[in-house]
Every structure is written in C-alpha cells, then in structure tokens.
Amino acid sequence: DTGVSQDPRHKITKRGQNVTFRCDPISEHNRLYWYRQTLGQGPEFLTYFQNEAQLEKSRLLSDRFSAERPKGSFSTLEIQRTEQGDSAMYLCASSLRGGENTGELFFGEGSRLTVL
Amino acid sequence: AQSVAQPEDQVNVAEGNPLTVKCTYSVSGNPYLFWYVQYPNRGLQFLLKYITGDNLVKGSYGFEAEFNKSQTSFHLKKPSALVSDSALYFCAVRDEFTGGFKTIFGAGTRLFVKA
Fold first, then answer.
1. Which of A81, A114, B50, B52 could form a disulfide with B33 if both were Cys (CB 3.0 to 4.6 A apart)?
2. Rounded to a whole number, what is the distance in Å from the CA of A108 to chain B's nearest CA?
C-alpha cells in the first residue's frame, strides 16, 4: 500500500467550469476527510465520511461543493461553477475507526486548483 | 468549539541549537493533540500525538512535545535542530467529546534552521 493518493495533482480551469477531484485512501481505513488549504493557512476542514456515510460537513462547503464516497472506498469532491476564490490545495486524509483510532490522519499530497 | 493558535508565523534557529514551536488550544472536553509537518510540495506528515498519560510525548525525527493542561499548551521541541528540520509545522486538536472526528489545524509555523 502506497498511502493516500489524489488525482489530479494540479488542475487549472476557467471560472464557471466544474471540476472533480478523486481520493483513494489507505485500503484498511474507513474514515476519509477532505480539507482545503490556502497559501499561508492551515488546512480547513470540509467534510468527512465513515464508510459511505457523510457524517459532517463544514459551513465552508457551499451548495456548489459536493462530496461522495459511494462504496466506502474512494471519494470524489466536485466543485460546480468554480470561482476564483475556490483556488486552493484540496487535501484528502484517511484514518482508522474504533479503538485503534486515536485520530492520526494520513494525508495525500493534495490536488491544487487554480481558477482563472 | 475547538480552536488552535500558533502565535509565531516563523521561528529561526541555528543548527545544533534547541528549538521550540508554540501551540495553544481551546476545547470543551479532553483534547487529542497532534503535530504535523509539511515539507515543500509534500503532503502533511504526522509527527506525534498526545491522547492521555505522560505529558511529554516523543515522536518522529527526534521531536517531542509537552502537554500542559493548566496553560492549554502543547509546544513542540527538539534538543538539537538540523537544517533538514526546516519546514512548515502545524499543531492540531480534536475534542474528545464534542468535536466528533473533526481535527482542527492551526495556521502553521515556518521553521528555518540555519547552518
């Protein structure tokens, strides 16, 4: 297992276009998280899944954002009608559930979005 | 609601000298505390965590951190800095009872270690 992988690593799009990011977590991890990081800031929580259930969403996640994890494995984050303010690094992380999970997150290398 | 503060945007230290990167937190319940490091063009990597027990926790690459409940702090330390320690460091907290499984990160502190 090579860790959390994200695709694409870089995406440049024009304002108004839709974009989708994919995250493949570590195989035995059943919790999956999405964060957004802008330059000079720490990661901001967006949402998380336990298996296929989306258990929490941040108020940062406007109606233009949607995340899915249909079979409890990989996840997608879609941004519709992108705006320049959406330009950021989108980070995915995964973790274990249950007694073995004390909260340590394993991050992918991120998907950088630039909206022109 | 939980929150994390890293009061220093940047810390400069000479190689071989001890380093400290500061972090304070606020939670309603018991805190789970973490430090992560981010190297250029790399994802965040876990360094260490405090869940319960001994207030001094040891982690990767010779780093350690001290949990101080009365001061609500969790400062990151290393006895002897290396140039290769230069990176962006994030403190993070999860509230055991009220925060669900949401981990909140500080804004980060950039560490420069000069040779």
1. B50
2. 6
